[in-house]
Amino acid sequence: MTEADTVPSPDAPNGGPDRQILVLDLSRSMLAPLPDPSGSPRQKIEIARSAVTRIVQNAEEKGSMFGLVTFADSPKVAVPLGEIHRENRPYVQSLIEMLVPAGRSAIWDGLAVGADLLREPSGAVRGTIVLVTDGWDNASTKFEPTGAEDKPHPLPRRDLFGHLLPAGSTLNLRVIGIGNGSQRDKGVDTARMNQFLSGLNSRALLVGAPTLFAYEEVDTGADLYTEMVNAFVDVEDAPRASAFELSSDDLARNAARAARALKQPEEHSAIHRLARAGAAPLEADMPYSEAPMLDVGVLSAGQAPPPDLREKYGPLATVVEAYLKREYPKALAELNRARLVLPPVTYAYWQAKIAYGQGELVEAARALLVAWAAADAVPVASRIRVTRRLALLQAQLQKDPEAESLLQFVEETEGKIQALPEELRTRVMDLFERLLELRGTYQLTKIEGTEDPAVAAQRHESAVDEIFGLLQDARLENTSGDSTVEGALDFIEICLAEMR
User: Fold this and answer.
1) Which of 181-190, 249-258, 292-301 ranks highest by mean pLDDT?
2) pLDDT score for 403
3) Which residues contact residue 73 at a Cβ distance below 8 angstroms, ignoring those fewer than 6 apart?
4) For residues 129 and 110, what is the distance between their CA atoms, to the nearest angstrom?
C-alpha cells in the first residue's frame, strides 16, 4: 500500500460527506456587467447568484456539506458549513438572493474565514475552498500571505499561508478569477495570483500537506457560471462527447481556447509539463510497453467497454472493466492485485484515474505526481504519448478546460487515424507536436530582457510559417479527403492563427 492509500480524502475526512466552501467576492465591482457572446451582458453578481443556486442544488443531491463566505470590506459567513436538505434549502436560497455587492475586497480575510469553517479540532484544515473574485485584496486587516503585497502593511497581520495550511491539513483550493488586469477592480492580476498560489504550494511542501491548487480565468458570463458550477459538481458525471461531433463554430471556439493554453503555459501546468521526449530514458526496473497487456489509456468512466477489452488490456482488463462501470473500490482492488506485473507509470496513472473518479482529488494529484516521476524512465518511443496522457489527466484534475481541449483533441485524432497510411499519420501527429512546441518561441516574445523583442518575434513568426507550410503539405497528402484529418488540420490552423 502506498502512502497515498493511507491519506483520507480532504473532501471527506474520516469517510464523512464532502466539505466544500465557496468564498465569494461581494465588492462593489461585482455589480459591473460581464459580456457574453450568447446573450445580453449580465451583472457578475447576478451570474454568481445563479451559479450558487445550482451549487446548492448539487450539494443537496450529493449529501455534501456546503458553506458560503462572502467578503467586501470584511468577511461574513453567509451560509454556515452544513448539509443541505429539503427543509433548509429554501432558507439558504433566500440568503443567496440577498447577496448585494458593496465596498472593497478583503480576499485574504475571507479565505481565512473559509479555512476556519473547515478546521478540525486538531487544527488541521480539511476540505475544498473555491475562491471567486474579480480583483485583488485591498481591505484585509487580519491576514496577509507572505510576499503578496508590494510593500509591508502598516499594521501587523497574521500569515495566511500558515493559517490555511497547518500541519496535518489536506486542502483543495480553486481560484476563479473574473477578468485580467493589474489595476485594482479591473480584473484579477494573473501574475500576482499565480505568485500567491506558488507561495501556498511552498507552504504545502514545507509541512508535507497533500494539496491541489488551480487557477482559472474567465471573461464571459457563460464561463463564470460554468466554472463555478464545475468546481463543485462530481468530477465524472458522464462520458465526454467526441470533439469531432462538435459543430464547426464549436470546433473553432475549442481551438481558440486551446491556443490560449499554449500562449500562457505558466497558467496551465498540464501544458507547462509537456516537452518533446528526446532525451535518453533513465534506468527502470520495468520498461513501459504499449503491448496488449499494458496501457496508459484515456477511457472515461461510464462509457461502453471496447470490444477488445481483454485482448488489449490483459491484467488491466478487470481494472478497466470495473472503472468503466464506476465500481471504483473494485477497480482499485483489481489494480493492487495486478501491481507486480505493471510498470510503475501504468500503476500510478490508473491509481490517479480511480481516485479522480471517486472525487478524491488530492489522492489523485499525489498518484499523478508519482506517475510523472515514473514517466522519466519510459523509453523515448513511448514517452510522448505517455506524458501527453498524464497531462490530459492533470488538466481534468485541475479543471483546466483550455489545456484539456487541446490534449483531448490530440488524443482523439491519434485514435481515429490508425487505419490511415503510416506516412500521413506521422505527419499529422508531428504537426501537433510542433504546435505544442510553439509555446516556447511565443513565450520568448513576451519575456523582457532575454533578447531583442523584434528578433524573438521574427523567430516565432518563422516557426508558425513553417508549420503552416507543413500543414498545407498534409492537406495535399490527404488524397482520400479523410474527415478526421481535415478536422485535425482545421483545428491546428485555427490554433496557429491565434498564436501569431
Assistant:
1) 249-258
2) 80
3) 103, 104, 106, 139
4) 11
Q: How far apart are CA 400 and CA 405, in angstroms?
A: 9
Rounded to an integer, what is the distance from CA 9 to the centroid of its chain? 18
Contact 348, 370 (CB under 8 A): yes
CA distance 307 to 195: 47
Q: How far apart are CA 83 and CA 105, in angstroms?
A: 28
Q: What is the pLDDT of residues 353-411, one digit of tens each?
A: 888 888 777 788 888 888 888 888 777 767 788 888 888 888 887 777 778 888 888 88
Long-range contacts at 311-320 (CB < 8 A, ≥ 24 apart): 315/341, 315/342, 316/342, 316/346, 316/350, 319/350
Cell numbers at 86, concatenated: 429539503
Contacts of 212 (CB under 8 A, 6+ apart): 171, 172, 173, 361, 362, 365, 397, 398
**pLDDT surpassing 50 at residue 35:** yes
List the one residue out of 462, 473, 402 whose CA is nearest residue 431.
473
Distance CA 212, CA 318 (A): 29
Q: What is the mean pLDDT of residues 248-269?
A: 72
What is the mean predicted confidence (pLDDT) over 144-165?
74
The answer to whether 467 touches 479, Cβ cutoff 8 Å, is no
Task: Record the pTM.
Answer: 0.58
The pLDDT assigned to 143 comes to 92
pLDDT of 101 reads: 93
Fill in the amino acid letter for 214: A
Q: What is the mean pLDDT of residues 278-282?
A: 44
| CB 286, CB 343: distance < 8 Å | yes
Sheet of 211-218: strand order equals: 75-83, 65-71, 19-25, 126-133, 170-178, 211-218
Query: Which of 290, 321, 322 has its CA nearest to residue 308?
Result: 321
CB atoms within 10 A of CB 129: 25
Q: How many whole angstroms separate alpha carbon 359 and alpha carbon 201? A: 21
Distance CA 472, CA 494 (A): 13
Are the C-beta atoms of 445 and 460 separated by less than 8 Å? Answer: yes
**pLDDT tens, position by position, 423-457:** 888 888 888 888 887 877 676 666 555 556 677 77
